[in-house]
Write a structure and sequence with these properties.
Largest sheet: none
Number of helices: 6
Distance between the termini: 62 Å
Strand content: under 5%
Number of domains: 1
Order of helices and strands: HHHHHH
Bound molecules: heme C
Structural class: mainly alpha
Radius of gyration: 20 Å
């Protein structure tokens, strides 16, 4: 009986240790997928304003990087950058629309 209890505890511990952490998947979910990005002109130009103001606190506007990469490659970068820039959800949608519109197709 004792062996069964110890065995069950080990299985339970392993399950807890191997379960995926919530934060990385939550981060990726913040940035809309290519199919969900807005193509609205007003949203894109609002995104451009963010890109050239809030996104330039630490570096120049990363225009060349955006133009040379696909949106799929830029999504994880964006996920960490929007946190650094402390953007609201609306601003995230806008800057994502701008980045998508200017990324490599
Ligand atoms: C708190 C500082 C900070 C803010 C704000 C910030 N970034 Fe960055 N970003 C960095 C650092 C540090 C790097 C890596 C060094 C570098 O390339 O300058 C970087 C790199 C990048 C890169 C290049 C990644 C690569 O693969 O070469 C892109 C694109 C980028 N940032 C976009 C953005 C966008 C878009 C925003 C606004 C949503 C933003 N950043 C806001 C700090 C910041």
């Amino acid at each position: 009986m004792k062996k069964i209890v110890i065995g069950a505890s080990i299985v339970l511990l392993a399950a807890v240790a191997c379960s995926p952490k919530a934060s990385p998947s939550a981060t990726a979910a913040t940035i809309p997928e290519a199919s969900a990005v807005s193509s609205d002109g007003t949203t894109i130009s609002a995104g451009q304003t963010i890109f050239t103001t809030k996104c330039t606190k630490c570096h120049k506007a990363k225009t060349e990087v955006v133009a040379s990469k696909s949106y799929g490659d830029l999504r994880p970068v964006l996920a960490s950058m929007v946190k650094k820039a402390n953007l609201s959800n609306e601003e995230i949608q806008q800057v994502s629309a701008y980045v998508y519109a200017n990324s490599k197709k």
